[in-house]
Amino acid sequence: xxxxxQLLMLNAFLLFFILSACAQDPKxxxxxxxxxxxxxxxxYYSRTSKETLHVSDEDWKKVLPEDLYEVSRNADTxxxxxxxxxxxxxxxxxxxxxxxxxLFRSGAKFSxxxxxxxxxxQENKKSxxxxxxxxxxxxxxxxxxxxxxxxxxxxxxxxxxxxxxxxCMNSIxxxxxxDNK
Length: 181
Ligand SMILES: [Zn+2]
Description:
By secondary structure, the protein is an alpha+beta fold. The chain folds into two domains: 1-33; 57-178, Peptide methionine sulfoxide reductase (Metal Binding Protein, Guanine Nucleotide Exchange Factor, Chain A, Beta Complex), CATH 2.170.150.20. The chain is 28% helix and 22% strand. It is built from three helices and nine strands, in the order αααβββββββββ. Strands 3-4-8-7-6-5 form a six-stranded antiparallel β-sheet. The structure holds zinc ion (ZN).
């Protein structure tokens, strides 16, 4: 009987120990996260500078969040219907998330069923530049930021009037500034 009581007490003690260890865990994690997620300020970001940027991937890697780096510098594509802007219609301006270059106005955005934010017209001729992309066995036109050369998405010919173009963009590569801020 005495042994059973001792065993129960030992179990209770162990349970208490495990629970308090678990309770402390999130605190420890958040402390670690706050240290590791500190991203160096991006010195290339400017909404006013027109200067063309020639920055190495190595230097971009130091200042861009990993997911943006993968899209902007490695032409990665975010999964459809997951980005921030694929189904928004707020009035405002879209800038390059990597360098701050003016890309699109919300008036050129249209509701597309493809799962990525889509525009029929770039804001000015320096907003977006193009490159032929033969990856994945397709011939597509890659759309790049006119200032930093970062990958934004692709340009297709099945957009609405008046241009007939569809700029199919990755939300992560865009920085949106609402008009009524
Ligand atoms: Zn850019």
